[in-house]
Specification:
3 helices; alpha+beta; elongated
Length: about 80
């Protein structure tokens, strides 16, 4: 049996004019806030009534991150 709420759920790339709202939602609900930098892909899940119910974001990895770099033994030469 399909859940009616899931049947009306749509996940799509965020519209260009929604960047401020996306960042504000991350600031309110994510412990790191809206720290997405570099190249990003942002998606919004919208229910059948048009309400945002989830955000998905992918961002470029950090070029340099001390703890990660030490853990995998990266140096400035690499």
């Amino acid at each position: 049996m399909r859940d009616a709420w899931l049947a009306g759920l749509v996940v799509a790339p965020m519209l260009p004019g929604d960047a401020r709202r996306f960042d504000a939602e991350l600031d309110e609900h994510h412990w790191l806030g809206h720290r997405m930098v570099g190249e990003t892909m942002r998606y919004v899940a919208v229910d059948a009534s048009g309400e945002w119910v989830a955000l998905v974001g992918f961002a470029s990895p950090a070029l340099s991150c001390g703890p990660r770099d030490r853990y995998i033994a990266w140096s400035a030469e690499l």
